[in-house]
Amino acid sequence: MEVYMDNAATTRAYPEVVQLMNKIMEEDYGNPSSLHMKGVEAERYIRRAREILAGILKVEEKELIFTSGGTESNNLAIIGGALANQRAGKHLITTRIEHASVYQPMMFLEQMGFEVTWLPVNAYGLVDLDALREAIRPDTILVSMMCVNNEIGTIEPIADAAAIVKECNPNTLFHVDAIQGFGKVVLHPKRIGIDMLSVSGHKIHGPKGTGFLWVRDRVKVQPLMLGGGHQKGMRSGTENVPGVAGMAKAAEIEYTDFENKLEYLYGIRSYFIEEIEKLEGTVVNGGKSRGSLNRPAEDQQDACAAPHVVSVSFQDIRAEVLLHALEETHVYVSSGSACSSNHPAISGTLKAIGVEKRYLDATVRFSFSFDTTKEEIDECVAQLSRLLPMLRRYTPGGRKRGGKRV
Amino acid sequence: MYKAFLIKYGEIGIKGKNRYLFEYALMDQIKFSLRKVDGQFEVTKEQGRVYVEALTEYDYDEVIKALSRVFGIVAICPVVLCDNNEWSNLCQVTGDYMERTYPDQHLSFKVFARRADKSYPKKSMEIGADMGEYLLDRFPDMTVDVHNPDVALNIEVRERTYIYSISIPGPGGMPVGTNGKATLLLSGGIDSPVAGYMIAKRGVKIDAVYFHAPPYTSERAKQKVIDLAKIVAAYAGPINLHVINFTDIQLAIYDKCPHDELTIIMRRYMMKIAEHIALEEGSLGLITGESIGQVASQTMQSLRATNAVCTLPVYRPVIGFDKNDIVEISEKIGAFETSIQPFEDCCTIFVAKHPVTKPNVRAIERSEHHLVDVIDELLKTAIETRETILCE
């Protein structure tokens, strides 16, 4: 039985997506810029995709810029946003738990003479909103914050954050990296005061190499791809028609019957955590119960989890070894800590939430999709309970703590 | 412009009556190296020289790259060919060659003429003198210097006339296949590919053994070793890579032997397995990338302890090299970037905090005695279940 639990890395494309893309590549392969019928046909797919995606986010169709994926969307928002607004100031704000496609552009801008404030997070990975309030200055031009953390699955309080940003400095742009959030939370960026939102196609069962940046009308962004002036000059390059159509199709499916699917997935998640906590020497990182975009009450900080990501630390186990051992039984997961930046302000999510040093290398990320079944969870947990004692026999700590010599 | 290449080889010249064997091996390796280059080539041998002639259009840089990886070649001279007809035609062709090759023209030259075809109307001396005169007339900025010329212009009259003056260095060494076969213990590191390269350079065909320890080493670590084998194979010819599943042996050692001796005991079993495969595959020795004192398992004492399990000679071509020297060769052969990819190999996972640096062979043997019930079966299984991958 193959158990794919690495859906935060990428997902399997929905069959409908593949079908549609096949048809476009084989039959409706025109260039949307062409004047003839073939071009018009292709353009229709792009229009339709705009309709679908704008409908989901409740934004204007013309506000979407199609890109090559999450990384490009984040780069465009941050570098493009900073360059276009640098006359108003050179101060940027982000958090210590961002993805590399946010913090690398931030570091690039630091080298270009911008100043960046890196906000801390608490033990659940929630961004410190008081620190945000204090950090905003008259010359702050952009705040960038993720919607759902990719390593531990915390849903950040972006609605409250947006309110704070606009209250402290109405001219400051607020960008949200929603690459892990889109398809797993209900997002209406315009209503909560966001200015830019990054999305990736392949995290929601769409094709790789697709994504988009939503940019609120009248927000100035400097384009980074210059050329033939496609997409109103915001992103030159022939549109990836099959990719864009496939991504929209995937989003449409993802958000159909959404509340029920969400309910189901949170159920799967709770079940998984219950089973995991029965195993010896395991710690689940981050919040445990259902979260939302609005900041949880102070006494309910535990309730900030996205449905699809669970980060687990295993005592006396090396994540990479466990990953490969699981791989041998066709269970696919990811090792927990991705960040290895040298920047003093960036520590990676696990370090930032204060995970003990001995657990940093011992953390595995399990990530689900709406298709994940209880049987798959059972298989995964069964393999874990078989492998953990075996692997612990061969680590110094594991032996000390009672692993038997054979 | 160049229709042929003159291949100069060094050490083969002194091999006495075996010389033809070395020359044929060299020609085989040249043909092999050119098989992936677009175009048709003819490799011929005459009077102690090997020529590569292009029969079709070809890419110059590709040919040079391929030839400069053939062991045994000391230098590659790109040659312009001219039919033996009017003297004026040869002058024209030679002059054009000089003009294109040395656009600056402020240089001294000397003509080295040879006449293999004795029916040619001019003698060697006359060819030299007359060609010199023609060139001096045509290029006023050029001078003749018979003692220390900037450019040594060679003109060789055979059934056609060969004109050349450029010499591109080859790798030297001896053609692969002229010195038997040896088995390389290949890890994912920097040293072992360099060791394989250096021994292959002496004309030795290479077989390789890699110890894979899933789940402690990943598929990517194995792919990296395959990539490294391919890089060495670009010089050494096709390499059979034997992948041994070493996990069970490693775990058994971990279970039953003192932890400060893990690495040294592991190395000893690796050598044993490698020797077994070497003998099966007809190798005459083992090759390792060990260098004295580099790590705990490469002290003089450790080397003695690992060496003690083998009867075949173990060749350690980088034994006296500093890491920097090894890195230099690694970069030169294009292996460095692959070698430093950060995938764990089995050496780095089962390492004690303080491994023994001065192991005593008798003590190690006593520790290994704990494995006596299981080890024969484990070794047998590891050898029998090996996967062999052809890397070229």
Automatic annotation (TrEMBL), chain A:
Its cofactor is pyridoxal 5'-phosphate. InterPro entries: Aminotrans_V_dom, Aminotrans_V_PyrdxlP_BS, Cysteine_dSase, PyrdxlP-dep_Trfase, PyrdxlP-dep_Trfase_major, PyrdxlP-dep_Trfase_small. Pfam families: Aminotran_5 (PF00266). It is an enzyme of class 2 (transferase). The keyword Metal-binding applies. Residues 3-378 form the Aminotransferase class V domain. The keyword Iron-sulfur applies. GO terms for molecular function: cysteine desulfurase activity; iron-sulfur cluster binding; metal ion binding. Keywords: Iron, Iron-sulfur, Metal-binding, Pyridoxal phosphate, Transferase. Coiled coil: none annotated. PROSITE patterns: AA_TRANSFER_CLASS_5 (PS00595). Its EC number is 2.8.1.7. Belongs to the class-V pyridoxal-phosphate-dependent aminotransferase family. NifS/IscS subfamily. This is Cysteine sulfinate desulfinase/cysteine desulfurase and related enzymes. It comes from Coprococcus catus GD/7. The lineage of its organism: Bacteria, Bacillati, Bacillota, Clostridia, Lachnospirales.
